[in-house]
From TrEMBL:
<keyword id="KW-0670">Pyruvate</keyword>
<dbReference type="InterPro" id="IPR015793">
    <property type="entry name" value="Pyrv_Knase_brl"/>
</dbReference>
<dbReference type="Pfam" id="PF02887">
    <property type="entry name" value="PK_C"/>
</dbReference>
<dbReference type="GO" id="GO:0005737">
    <property type="term" value="C:cytoplasm"/>
</dbReference>
<keyword id="KW-0479">Metal-binding</keyword>
<keyword id="KW-0324">Glycolysis</keyword>
<dbReference type="InterPro" id="IPR015813">
    <property type="entry name" value="Pyrv/PenolPyrv_kinase-like_dom"/>
</dbReference>
<feature type="domain" description="Pyruvate kinase barrel">
    <location>
        <begin position="2"/>
        <end position="330"/>
    </location>
</feature>
<protein>
    <recommendedName>
        <fullName>Pyruvate kinase</fullName>
        <ecNumber>2.7.1.40</ecNumber>
    </recommendedName>
</protein>
<dbReference type="InterPro" id="IPR040442">
    <property type="entry name" value="Pyrv_kinase-like_dom_sf"/>
</dbReference>
<dbReference type="InterPro" id="IPR015795">
    <property type="entry name" value="Pyrv_Knase_C"/>
</dbReference>
<comment type="similarity">
    <text>Belongs to the pyruvate kinase family.</text>
</comment>
<dbReference type="GO" id="GO:0000287">
    <property type="term" value="F:magnesium ion binding"/>
</dbReference>
<keyword id="KW-0808">Transferase</keyword>
<dbReference type="InterPro" id="IPR036918">
    <property type="entry name" value="Pyrv_Knase_C_sf"/>
</dbReference>
<keyword id="KW-0460">Magnesium</keyword>
<feature type="domain" description="Pyruvate kinase C-terminal">
    <location>
        <begin position="359"/>
        <end position="478"/>
    </location>
</feature>
Amino acid sequence: MSKIIGTLGPKSRAVETIEGMLKAGMTVARIDFSYGTPEYHQETMEFLKQAVRNTRTLCGVMMDTLGPELQIINKSETPIAIDVDAFVTLTPDQSKEASSKYLPINFQNLANVVKPKDTIFVGQYLFTGSESTSIWLEVNEVKGNEIVCRAKNAATLAGPLFTALASSVRIDLPTLSENDKKVIASWGKANRIDFLSLSYCRHAEDVKQARALLTSLELTKTQIFAKIENAEGLKHFDDILKEADGIILSRGNLGIDLPSEKVFLFQKAALYKCNMLGKPAVITRVVDTMTENPRPTRAEATDVANAVLDGSDAILLGAETYRGNFPIQCIGTAEIVYNQRFYFKKVLEYVGEPMGHLESIASAAVRSATKVGASMIIVFTSAGQAARHTLIAKYRPLMPVMVVVIPQISTNFMRFSFSGTFTARQCLIVRGLFPILADPQVSTSNAANELVLKMAIEHGKMAGCIKANDRVVVCQKIGDSSVVRIVDMAA
């Protein structure tokens, strides 16, 4: 029922590999602009499109911005060995080669915002936090615009790009950089992205600015997922959640800005808040060891299961699929027990009474499906009715929810436009929703609705979700009325 977001990169961009990831359960492909050129990512997109055609599988596309990320370029790509207690200088001088003595960083103002005893973490792009491949630096002194640090552990930094994080230090860079705006306006618009992952989101205003940019580019259907990565984002979490379409908890970065023992507390609180508002929540950093190993550790498997039980809609795989050796094997998760009755009651109490029209219909559909032991909920929706199926998912039914998206065709007498694919693909990030596209020629008549319902049931049977003597709960609009009904399958 949970969804998997896979980051496509050097180890996972071949058509055959993407096909394997789609078959294994990837529902959203993440394209990360922290690294690589637009041309490189466009080539990856073409591979993804081919894999989607070959597998006949829907897949959403998430574009991840760079934001105010501190980066160190290793032009020679020569591994850099740093010993414990060695002194390393962070410099804004980009002409210097990265070495065990100097690390050129892309933020000119860093020396003005750090102080002695501050901690700076440097690791591989999409780092795993391994003590042998990433380094903890303690600021020893600041000399002009350079920062002299002492290494707190021994490590070897490998690869062309390292990411730096200054713990509990505010980086005075815009959340949407000029380069971010440029690639969204060009690459993002050209590829009609389904989701924008707003990196290092710190304020609700960041989401508003991103929304205004998307609106100006006529990307009004693109959903914004605010990526919470530091203490500043946590401080303004409630306001950010109100503005965003969903939340991504970047646990790796949060684990540097916060004491480790506080990350899980925030995770539980954040997932609860997302669930009560019916907004998708995504967590990262789940099977780090699978970058090098074909199986997760028991602790990682338990962590994934607990995240699902806490209410996470989706799991985001970063380094595991981007540069890991087992991208297809990584596409997996664990769900064991879900107390739906308790969860349903908790959401009802949070919503309170009187309920809104759609909220009442959604909760009634899930209550009916639970009481009669339905094998599936089928909900009819269109491009303008996204709230109907997302509210059903909010109540976390035990059975899958088939979202029958009825596309709409419009014309200005010069050309035809087809809407509905956005709605279908954006279901692929919400727990329990499984979209199918209906025939766009279908009208809104009762006879046509019954025909589409029959086809949806047949699709459920072929997928193995509906069997003889099962019951199916259907939620649809008939005329001016919203109807919830129970359909008995023939023996």
